[in-house]
């Protein structure tokens, strides 16, 4: 099976981008990172991608009069680079229905909560305010409704006494860096596929384990 050409969309430092690039170095990984695209010219992740030998591109949203013009420029660039699949990795722009539907089933995102809990921003603060004992991250297909797409994979961490937003975020991002490459592999090799608005899996897994908190 040919490797799928993937674009990563970023707005900042690109820590999840780096984990995807590293995973794709493996010869058996079913995707190649063909492009890193940012809406911000000062995004630190662009330099990190260049250092890794990945093609980079900045399309500054501020240089376009409307959101639609910006997204059309992005879509044209993705077509020029023969991109088959998109990973959002800290891309801080809300996408229009037009763009999302154009890439339906071919665009995934990682979100720092156990969706459907805590959609949107400030997820770690809200988890602490609500007093949950487990928190985590989710990789999902992107749909027009924010953070509401079919779930591909999730990872959990315990919330412990004395946690702050920073300590909880640090624990979650470790899991993000492992989960996102795993989810991209599953989608690109057909292990996880979108069917009738839900994710179908081609194989099962051990259902005997559980994270208990407090442990």
UniProtKB/TrEMBL annotation:
One GO-annotated biological process of the protein: 'de novo' IMP biosynthetic process
Catalytic activity, reaction form: N(1)-(5-phospho-beta-D-ribosyl)glycinamide + (6R)-10-formyltetrahydrofolate = N(2)-formyl-N(1)-(5-phospho-beta-D-ribosyl)glycinamide + (6S)-5,6,7,8-tetrahydrofolate + H(+)
InterPro entries membership: Formyl_transf_N, Formyl_transf_N_sf, GART
Catalytic residues identified in the record: 111 (proton donor)
Coiled coil: none
Domain (Formyl transferase N-terminal): residue spans on this chain: 5-184
Site (Raises pKa of active site His): 147
Residue positions binding (6R)-10-formyltetrahydrofolate: 67, 109
Record has Signal as a keyword: no
Domain of life: Bacteria
Any GO molecular function: phosphoribosylglycinamide formyltransferase activity
Gene Ontology CC: cytosol
Pathway noted in the entry: Purine metabolism; IMP biosynthesis via de novo pathway; N(2)-formyl-N(1)-(5-phospho-D-ribosyl)glycinamide from N(1)-(5-phospho-D-ribosyl)glycinamide (10-formyl THF route): step 1/1
Keywords from the named record: Purine biosynthesis, Transferase
EC code(s) of this entry: 2.1.2.2
Enzyme class of the recorded protein, top EC level: transferase
Binding site for N(1)-(5-phospho-beta-D-ribosyl)glycinamide: 14-16
Pfam family, one: Formyl_trans_N
Family named by the database record: Belongs to the GART family.
Role according to the record: Catalyzes the transfer of a formyl group from 10-formyltetrahydrofolate to 5-phospho-ribosyl-glycinamide (GAR), producing 5-phospho-ribosyl-N-formylglycinamide (FGAR) and tetrahydrofolate.
Cited HAMAP family: PurN
Name the UniProt record assigns to this protein: Phosphoribosylglycinamide formyltransferase
